[in-house]
Design brief:
alpha/beta, 4-stranded antiparallel sheet, 9 helices, globular, disordered C terminus, nucleotide-binding, Phosphonate ABC transporter ATP-binding protein, translocase
Length: 272
Amino acid sequence: MLEISKLVKRYGHDEPVLKELDLRVEGSSVVAIVGASGAGKSTMLRCINRLVEPTSGSIRLNGRELVNLKGAALRRARRRIGMVFQGFNLIDRLTVMENVLAGRLGYVNLYQAVTRRYPQQDIERAFTLMERVGIAHYANKRADALSGGERQRVGVVRALMQEPEILLADEPTASLDPRTSEQIMKLLQSLASELSLPVLINIHNVAQAKTYTERIVGLRHGKMIFDGAPADFNKEALEAIYGGIEAPEEELVETPSASLDQGKPGVTHDQA
C-alpha cells in the first residue's frame, strides 16, 4: 500500500508544484495520473522514489515512511520501488541482458556489480521475465539496436528485476507510436494483475488512461482535481483538469478494441 499525505514540493521561493497532495493506492491497482504539463505529475512520482526531495508531508510504502530516509536505508527502500522512464534510460552499448540485470545492482556486492557476475537465480529470473514480455531472443543484442517498443520492454523488465513493491511509470509511452504505446499500456496492465503489483502511470493520453487503468487521478496546479473510475471521467472532469486547452475533446474517445494487439500480452509485432 502507498499512502501519500499532505505532500508539498516547492522549488526555492516559487509557488509549490505540489500542494498538500493526498493519495492512497493499494493492492494491484493500476492508477493513471493525468494533467497538463507542469501540473506536478512527474514531480509526484519522483518524490515517491526520492529522486526529488519533498518539501514536507508523508510518503509511506507498506507502512514504511520514505521521506526521512537517508544513506543505506534510502538505498534499500529504493530497491523496492521500480521506475520506468519515458526516455528508457538504457545503456546503449550494453546488451539487453546486461541492462536487465542492472535492476539487481542494489542487491549484489561491488565486485559482482563491476564484473557483472550475477547469481544464477538472477539470470534465470531475467530470462523468465524477458520471455514474458517477448524480448528473450534479444538477450545478447545491444540495446541501441532495438526499436522504441522493445527498448521500453527492457526498461519494464529491468524495473521488475528489483522485485518492487510498487511500479512507477513516468510517461512510458510518450516516445512511442500509437500502436506500440497501446501494447506497452496493455503490458503494464497485465503485469500488475499477474504480479499483484500496484502501478502508477503518469500519462498524457486520456483515452489510454480510460482504457488501461482502473482509476484516474487528475492534477491541476499541484492539486488533485479528480479521483475516480475511468467511466466517471467525463467532459466536465476533462475541463476541470485541462481547462479545455491541453487535452482536446477527442482524447475522451475510447481506444477501439480492434486496434489493440490481439496476441499474447507484451509480444511485439512491430519494429517501430
